[in-house]
Queue: 2 jobs
Job 1
Amino acid sequence: MTTTKKTSHLQKHEQEMNVCIRCAYCFEQCPVIREVQWDTEGARGKVILAYGILTGEIEPSQYIADKLFRCTFCRDCLERCPSKVKILEIISSARADMVEAGFASDIQNHVVQNIHTTGNIYGDKEVVSQEREGKTPLFIGCQYLGRPNKTKKYIKILEEIGISPVVKKEVCCGYPLEVLGFKKEFTIHKEQFQKSFPFKEAMTLCPTCTIFLHEGHNINAKHVLQVISEKIPSAHLNMKVTYHDPCDFSRGLKLIEEPRKILKKLGVDVVEMETNKQNSRCCGGGGGILMSDQSLSNDIAKKRIHEALDTGTEILVTSCPTCEQVLKKAAQEIGEAEGKTMIIRSIEDIIWQGIQEAKKSAEATKA
Amino acid sequence: MHIDIKKLQEIVGVENVRDNIADRYVYASDASVHRHLPDIVVRPSTIEEVQHILRYANDNKIPVVPRGAGSGMSGQTVPIAGGIVLDMKRMNRIIEIRPEDVLCKVEPGVINDELNRVLKPSGFFFPPTPSSGMICTIGGMIGTNASGNRSVKYGATRDAILGMKVVLANGELVTLGSNTRVDSSGYQLAKLMVGSEGTLGIVVEATLLISPIPKYRAMGVANFSSLEDAGRMISDTIASGITPSMLELMDNVAITAVNNAQHLGLPDVAAIVIFECNGMVKEAVDHEMKRISEICEKHQGTGVKISDDPKEMKRIYEGRQKLFPSLSRYGEGMVSTALADDMAVPMSKIADAVHEIHEIAKRNNVVMSAYGHCGAGLIHTKILMDTNKKSQWQDAKKAVKEVYEYIQALGGTTSGEHGIGISKAPSWKEEKKDSLALMKAIKKTFDPNNILNPQKLMDAPEDWLTATPLRYHMSA
């Protein structure tokens, strides 16, 4: 097959797309197809669309681009696919060909422009990391830069457990460019990133950045919870919660036990949801879907809240700011519509609360 | 073909009708080698909607192809004549569960594993266990008479069907079968619908026989240095009077594929046999497992392992469960195609059949695996080849023909559980030549305008390779 400009990114996946035998096993827990139930919207459908564009059997269109962007990149299809087809790489390349064919949406272009002009997804030059000296490089990431209180809390936690993070004036890791298919823009941005963050090893706050620092920049990145789980003090918070595994955490980084270990050590009883750990249902917030279909994202998030409600607990803890954001919105809407309560809390809040409790308890023992 | 999209939108709602080329392209294929665009995709959610759609289609002689998960491997859901693809996944209600009558009633879009999840608290399950159970629909299972790894004990979907509601081609709703396990009078029309691949009517409700979940089960595995020994072990086990709940074979091609894709580290032997017994009494199950392990040893089986630990049983079966799609990872440049994929032979002929399949593959420059529910006489094969090369398709065509000729010479049959569709029709028609006229007469009675999944089974083209465009792109 000759490469055409139209499919320059998809070209390398031709054999991989033939490896897909279209068994539909990826339907099992794909949050999008479970919600909308059109074959076109599942992982198999997206791979078929990509194949059609590559072979020229269908022409790129805004309609097809919209389908390709309706994916949360939750990695569940990768878990289900027995042939281990590189589904997300195919979708990402298909998106790149769509973008180069001019089918990116205004909001997607806007985010890319924001990163280009300000170094972060918000397009706000005031959103910057507070530089500090220390020993271990810490990458904050856009999601936490936009939530400075959460970042401060994590830094205080690290200090409490004897770790001194180095923070530089950083720019976005570039994952949004990659996932939205802006490959050329990422290549340019990559140089800027590497100048601003010249480390080979780092801690990170955001699970998605953790993966992308490794995959996109070859940095040996560790999520901060991996570090915290080794040094967390014991506490007696006496809480009962359920824990939502962020997709990039459980399926991407395979970090399943660390957050549970932390919660257990702090005296928090975790009641598991029906789907959890590597089989955890997606919150609906990833893959750029918030930019392309907020309503679908919200419907997916509501399913997750209902699953959490079925545990009989009233607190859901998670370790990803995007999950936290979309689940909070869904929980609020369910609360208003159905009168059911589900409080969404971040794991760093619980950790901070636990550390305070442990300190008080130690002081009381001394006294 | 003119289709009144507004009419269909009025029936099911605008949001449940799509005619964009992107949707049509996705619905043009399933897990088979075939591809053909439908004109439109429609998603009904009620019996009445199905009736209205069929009345409209029948009046206007528009083909209608029902589809569940679209995971069929013979092209049953490929709309070879265009028309309407009827996506049945929205009809996914479990209508009632009646443990006291050992039955349940479901809509066709219910997923097999979802049904079992809902049945579990009542202590029952739906016995047919296809490997694709996590995504396949009951409607699709009825259409193909699907079975799976427990067919050796429980039979196929047809054995678990008591009755059903069917919308006929003219939109009329009929109730077939009964709610009873025995039903001796008249033509068994509910059973006739099973395996009819959507050519006689649209199943809109099914009454299914359910079984108590066995309290105890154990699983074993044995390695064989020759396929013939493995085949003899399988037929000997069945002939001994033991009724295992599973008796599965994997040949070396299958083992290599699973190891390449899943990194499970299965032993590099000629064949692996996996066996399972289940029941309500532990001692009875243990006794049967011991008998099977003795039969393994009699036929030079080595490394026999038996376990009743759920984790270990899952590990033993993992490779088999993920085998079919893993075959695409057998070797660089080769992918798995769903061709000649599920023939059945008399039990005593399994070893002969498996041996000859490998010889045929060698003669025709392709790789063929052999595995499957051999305890039921069912052998799965796949043709592994370079789908980009035109010459490989000619090799595959010749291999398919030779395989089926040999299977028929052994007294076997073309399809044990995946159905006929398009790709198996030429050989199947040869096998069933004495009864084709009767089948055509039945089709004519049910569907005089030939709108229901036309050009399938006895009406399928004579050459599967040119019947539709292939879904693979060929460059050389």
Note: Chain B has a mean pLDDT of 95.
Job 2
Amino acid sequence: MQKLRTTMIAAAALLIWQGCANAQMHHQHGSEAACDEPDLRCASKVTPVFASDGTLWLAWMAGGRISVASSRDAGKSFSTPVAVTDKLNMDWGPDARPKIAIDRKGGIALAFAIFRDKAFNGQVLTTRSNDGGKSFAAARPITGNNESQRFEAIGFDNNGELFATWLDKRNRVPAQQASKKYDGAALFFASSKDGGATYSDARMAIDNTCECCRIGLAFDPSNHPVVVFRNIFEGGVRDHAVITFADSATPGEPRRVAVDDWQIAACPHHGPSLAISPNGTYHVTWFTNGKARKGLFYAHSRDGGKSFSAPSAIGDAKRAPSRPFVLAGPHGLTMAWKEFDGEKTSVKVMTSGDDGENWSKPRTIAETADASDHPLLVTDGRHSYLSWMTKADGYRFIPIGDES
Amino acid sequence: MRRQFLAVALFLALLMPAPAQDSETQLKPFGRGSWRELMKAHAGRPTIVHFWGVTCGPCKIELPQLGAFMKEQSGIDFVTISADFVPNLPEATRAMLQRSGLSLAENWIFDGFADRLRFEIDPTWQGDIPRTLLISREGEMTTIEGSAEIADLKQWSARQLAVKK
């Protein structure tokens, strides 16, 4: 009997241990975040922006919510977070993240996407705070159309008008009704004259773009919105294009950044980045796996996107360089990207003091040994900083250095 | 001794969760070392490994085609690996595999630091999905980026099965 009891205790212990192991596995399953609370330390995506008074604002996605907090000491300490939303089914796609923009008066505009059904169709929601981030209006859809929108980008121009652009799948409906094949999504846009409280009717800039990559948005010195995105060129080639708007309601012609010749019917989940220097030079970084070139690349245009320099490779090709980001800062350009050596992810940075003709030798600025967000760069007009959320080491906000 | 065995068996049966139904799609967690394990398990057998994810548009179109293809094939090992970045999606993954007729494939799901898992499979792969690997009996690997043409898979499979004879 004693033997039976011992056996049963051992069997029960085994089952309990297995149960714990399963629960542990379930908890950790595929998670990019360290924990499930709405706190910054649990965030999977963090987006920074500086207000004109030098306050750093973060918007992040954690525990199924969007929250914001601010810092007056360049990220050393943060205000008590404010929950912008209740728990929602957030768009967790690798290139999705909450967007935050601040006007000159301190009004805060936010945009983010949720999955609105089990088929992972998205909906872009927007909200605004008029009281310096103490409270936010109820989030509202950016468009009345109910098909699918994801990968929004927002920014204030010099006149305080908010420009928004996103990838929208509404055109697949008439295509399906006509039994026609529909590729990708369309680049849509709208603008807001009241700081993001209401938006103009959505309009299309171009149809049949890639549907799963982030969009780069910046303004040229004449206040024109400029958008870089992964397009679908003839033959299903997913290379990058740039569109310069004549004004917030008038898109220009798409111009190809480079002929990488990446013909692929897939979601690269890996969008480009755009910065514009005070003199009007466009700087674009991107990832491709095309026939012409593979890896991360940089090119610039000194004629408003009509033509681009020959793409130059970025990073160590043996270390899977990814997620490039370019910033036009007070002392020139900074570029950041990730590399992975099989164990750790490093963020590399390099700088250019001559508007992208020559770049410094890349150096490692931060490392982590588990999942991490994309590295982002941000400036307060005096210094440039790396903003990087990591699962193992928390949120990192690191000054790039005087050379930037 | 026999009574002891029966008692333990009964005790375990009471404690165990209800057994999975036949129709339930089994998903194995794909972690560190899983790729080596998978390669070892299929060594010497023609194998198709398909990477996909529930939030990937082209995958939604391709998956049912692969399900129909798998049903027609015998002698080719068929493995799917959900390599999506979206967390907490085992249920959605199971549902999509089931709808696509892939419940009986060998199904895995990324579980852990995705960059490292991808690096173990192919250091140059940045995570674009769908992606299909055709692995011959001799271990020769052909990568198809993006949606695969089913006709190509059929041709490859026929060649593999012909070698056997």
Note: Chain B touches chain A through 48 residues (CB under 8 Å).
